[in-house]
UniProtKB/TrEMBL annotation:
UniProt protein name: DNA (cytosine-5-)-methyltransferase
Enzyme superclass (EC): transferase
One GO term describing the cellular component: nucleus
Keyword Mitochondrion: no
GO biological process, one term: methylation
The keyword Kinase is assigned to this record: no
Domain SAM-dependent MTase DRM-type, first and last residues per copy: 267-596
EC number, as in UniProt: 2.1.1.37
GO MF term set: DNA (cytosine-5-)-methyltransferase activity; DNA binding
Compartment(s): Nucleus
Active-site residues, as the UniProt record annotates them: C557
PROSITE patterns the UniProt entry points to: SAM_MT_C5, SAM_MT_DRM
Amino acid sequence: MAAKTFPKQAKPTCSMFSMAASSAGPSNSNLVQHFINMGFHERLVTKAIIESGESNTDMILETILTYSVLEDSQQVDQNTCHGSSNQQQCVHDDELSSDYDDSLDDSEIDDFVCLPNGMSQSPNIVTICKFHFYAFAEIVKISGIDIYLVQENGNSLPDNENVLLSLASMGYAVEEVSEAMERCGPDASVVDLIEFITAAQMAKTEAVFFEEEKPKIFVNMELKRKQNQEALERNKKKGPLAEQDDVIRLPNPMIGFGVPSICSVVAYRTLPEAAIGPPFFYYENVALATKGDWETISRFLYEITPEFVDSKYFCAAARKRGYVHNLPINNRFPLLPLPPRTIHEAFPLTKKWWPEWDKRTKFNCLKTTYGSPKLTEMVRKAVEKCGDNPPDHVKKYVLEECRRWNLVWVGKNKVATLEPDEVEMILGFPRNHTRGGGLSRTDRFKSLGNSFQVDTVAYHLSVLKNIYPDGMNVLSLFSGIGGAEVALHKLRIPLKNVVSVELSEANRDIMKSWWQQTDQKGNLVHLADVQKLDPHKLDKLIKSVGGFDLIIGGSPCNNMAGSNRVNRDGLEGEQSSLFYDYFRILETVKIIMNRRN
DNA sequence: GTCAACATGATGGATGAA
DNA sequence: TTCATCCATCATGTTGAC
């Protein structure tokens, strides 16, 4: 039986996935569809509605979950799978190692960081699988734990019986192993056997999967594009913005549904039915995008109204961003301790040198590039010439440069650019998060400039803590330096399985290093290119981890950002068009997870 | 080839005066 | 309501030092 994505320790209520169901009316078919969209099997839904009646959706959900637990328990008994009754928490070792390798090209896999994961078939078995290969070599016993060492080149073979037992204990079916041994011959290595088995599994999956899934996903994309194009043309015909009824306007103040200091601006919202999870999703991009981009993003992401938030309400720097998500919005809480909210709180030593005519209390957006030494020299000379009270035109020039490049006063008449570690601190990352490992100063600024503000994102994600007390499976797209992961970690939400997709090797290294340094107990899988994440690979990943609880990411803003004077082509730009891959992957995951449940 | 420094501006929303 | 002005903006391409 396929895994459920809800941890049974914290059953979600209907309100967690908005009030869409109750607002959709009591129509039986709508109600059934609603729960099917949440990822439950139609048979269970129908049974639960008959038993609970149509009026109480929470009761229906309780009943469905009860049936799910019962069925899972039965399934577990049949499989003699020791451990949790929830298959999500009972992923076999082969699903966490060899299946990844089977499904993914070596070139795309950066590394498998394999850690004791507590999800092994047997509680005293740990698989260590490193560097995109899965050749089983030998078992060693360390502190009473059986460790399967996995190396790129298989070592000398045990005898056939041992091979059979070993592969079986790694989670392969005895029938599969026997068939592989028969087909590959007596001299076949373990590598050959595993390759044969996984190839056979893949062939079976492809035969079923591609015929059914691809057309549906393709049609959906095309339909969305067509609907969006029609809407854009309708707006064009309407003329001025004032006459267009579905234009998204930026709020002022930009506080979304609320920020820690101004809570509960919006107490609840109604999500469109198609947007209701699982999985939860969270998409981010620059608020000040080119015209019509947010309307398009919203149309693709189930007509959800973006939540626009300026991170100046969370830290000492502005960061105006739009977030489209299907998360609950009640009972959010901020990370503690609260980060410094003003420049002087963040950098107290600058107060001594700060001229009274520089009224800044917040930095502007922390970007990917910073002012040059020559610039700070020019500012110093300009101020020095005028003494303590420069004329207005000098003040204007200096303030323009200070605002533009986020300069701070570090001495008499002396300004400086922020250092990378200072930017790390403002954005909520651990000190030295991007330092070392071969990264230049320029690279650090670039990576940081493209990242989340951790406190802001953590505030939005904080609602997940009670829903997933035992941890989450996360699909992190355009991960960058791991802002989402750092936010979840700071919220103390365990990261069970993280599939992180990030093109930049430097960024992947930063996150890998953070993962190791923070002693994560879960599994991290790194992939490089979202465009190569096709339905087949997603299917295998979902099978391996038991489904994703959260799909999070902010696609490239290069072509949408105001700073870009060269290729500001909006969502259709070369990099920013990867938004459509975010949508494609989200849709694909939803479809696969619905089918598996 | 890599890295840092440097020069470069259009866009769109906010604001306020007419 | 219209218009001018102000302002901020997850950036890009070229150059030169090494």
